[in-house]
Amino acid sequence: MASDSTKMMKMFTSKAPKMLNFKNHNLKKPRKFGLGECVCRRCGYRGRGMIMKYDLNYCRRCFREIASELGFKKYS
């Protein structure tokens, strides 16, 4: 048995019903919530440290670099 889903899909090229069944159950699905859904607009980072307030969607590193351009002030 192959470990990668692309290798498995090559096996099912001539068998359309099996290919459809394989795609429905084994391929990755788009995320609607959780950590996998949050993506940084600038660098594409997926993970923790996301600034999502005010619909910014920047990771903490990108936000720190461009915060002054967005109008945020550092108080300390």
Which helices and strands occur, and which strands form pairs?
Layout: H1 5-11, H2 16-26, E1 50-51, E2 58-59, H3 60-70
Antiparallel strand pairs: 1-2
How would you describe this protein?
The chain has 76 residues and is mainly alpha-helical. The protein has a domain at 36-76: Ribosomal Protein S14/S29 (30s Ribosomal Protein S14, Chain N, Irregular), CATH 4.10.830. It has helices spanning 5-11, 16-26, 60-70, and strands spanning 50-51, 58-59. The relative contact order is 0.10.
Quick rundown:
By secondary structure, the protein is mainly α.
Features of this protein?
single chain; 76 residues; mainly alpha; two-stranded antiparallel ribbon; 3 helices; 2 strands; 38% helix; rod-shaped
CATH homologous superfamily identity of the domain at 36-76: Ribosomal Protein S14/S29
Overall spatial form = rod-shaped
What is the total tally of β strands? 2
Number of helices: 3
- pLDDT averaged over residues: 82
Q: What's the end-to-end separation, in Å?
A: 57 Å
Widest β-sheet, arrangement of strands: 1-2
CATH arch. level architecture of the domain at 36-76: Irregular
Largest sheet: 2 strands, antiparallel
Give the structural class.
Answer: mainly alpha
Which residues sit in consecutive blocks of at least 5 with pLDDT less than 50?
A: none
What percent of the residues sit in helical stretches (DSSP H or I)? 25-40%
- Strand residue content: 5-15%
Q: Per CATH, what is the topology of the domain at 36-76?
A: 30s Ribosomal Protein S14, Chain N
Q: Please provide the ordered H/E string of secondary-structure elements.
A: HHEEH
Rg is: 20 Å
